């Protein structure tokens, strides 16, 4: 009787399951491979992620040493460092207007793959059929469109994170330029803050001088005032009785 195992390679035979069968783990997709010589020698070569390179930094799995992702809009491979930045910039419409590409009316439907908008009339396609309960497909590529009003995106292209810096010798850009830009912006505002500090210091000096003048005036008022013999002036009640 045939018994299936957890090995990613389908083959005949009785094998153990779970961690007891693990002979190797694929370096690309982290799949479990059993102890069989055929499985150990063939799967890594046939792995679909062997030649996967990040579309942003052009690094493979062996270079960045992390997981590989696929963009939800352009279906390109992305590394773990660039997945969020790329998808945030990939969904931005590169057009200067939200008008339909075939007419001047406002496009209610947007295709994030073609980066174009279509009105109700021009979103209908004879090639791609619209399924029930779904948005009409893009007349160019057939990708499902989305309503433009539901999309939170800008018509201008933006740069995020490490993509703002120039490329280094190995072809990958780092975060150094990004942090330098932030630090330069902070240092650029130091002159403004220094002026504010100077104004505050001058105000404090003026307040101190005004306080000293008021103290001097109040002391001058009480110097000519004679209250007689008091306990505070050093004369006790028994000294007055002796007199």
Automatic annotation (TrEMBL):
Q: Where is the composition biased (Acidic residues)?
A: 194-210
Q: Which GO terms describe its cellular component?
A: nucleolus
The UniProt regions of compositional bias labelled Basic and acidic residues, in chain numbering, are 141-150
- Tell me the InterPro entries matching this sequence: NOA36 (IPR010531)
- In residue numbers, the region (Disordered) covers 130-176, 188-225
Single Gene Ontology MF annotation: zinc ion binding
Q: Pfam families from the xrefs?
A: NOA36
Q: Where does it localize?
A: Nucleus, Nucleolus
| Annotated protein name in UniProt | Zinc finger protein 330
Q: Which organism is it from?
A: Molossus molossus
* Source organism phylogeny: Eukaryota, Metazoa, Chordata, Craniata, Vertebrata
